[in-house]
Amino acid sequence: xxxxxxxxxxxxxxxxxxxxxxxxxxxxxxxxxxxxxxxxxxxxxxxxxxxxxxxxxxxxxxxxxxxxxxxxxxxxxxxxxxxxxxxxxxxxxxxxxxxxxxxxxxxxxxxxxxxxxxxxxxxxxxxxxxxxxxxxxxxxxxxxxxxxxxxxxxxxxxxxxxxxxxxxxxxxxxxxxxxxxxxxxxxxxxxxxxxxxxxxxxxxxxxxxxxxxxxxxxxxxxxxxxxx
Length: 228
Known about the structure:
Layout: E1 3-8, H1 13-23, E2 28-38, E3 43-44, H2 51-61, E4 65-70, H3 76-91, E5 97-99, H4 106-118, E6 122-124, H5 132-141, E7 145-151, H6 167-172, E8 186-192, E9 202-210, E10 213-220
Parallel strand pairs: 1-2, 1-5, 2-4, 5-6
Antiparallel strand pairs: 2-3, 7-8, 7-10, 9-10
């Protein structure tokens, strides 16, 4: 019997790649998704993606979704309390492990491990220490499709936000930018994955500069009002 777990799901490329890795495993089975949502905006925290699109991803994966609600400008303390509350719900399902899409940030890995240990759970990192250039090749070879939703202007110009992440995108990244954006250079929204039952139809909305980052609104092709 496979070890059942939840996956921390940002809606972006790394969490989608983590799910792909886990789906190839004979040892693990993902039985649910866990996403942090900023309730003031009804959007995925950090990424700024609408919850309605997050829910379309969960439906395409046929997986239940649990949301960790925090307020805008929430600090670590608020996040940790909210996360612990949802972890208790997950434990009631008999699940003791949460997987994350982190690749090489040691301090973030330790932070996640310590927080889960406080509630008697453990963390799993299916992408850990896989070279990011190798992950990009896997991303392209398996026909993932994603679009950038936010960029750090200290690393990437406005022209990189709202772009489809194809080979041309990765080839055009500056040399000092990690190909997977692991240092926070960019975040993304996946609208097609080998794990999805259906492609999520989207359109690219307005760009805005907010909280020192460039954001691009992603809209359902079934038409939502474009605002940030």
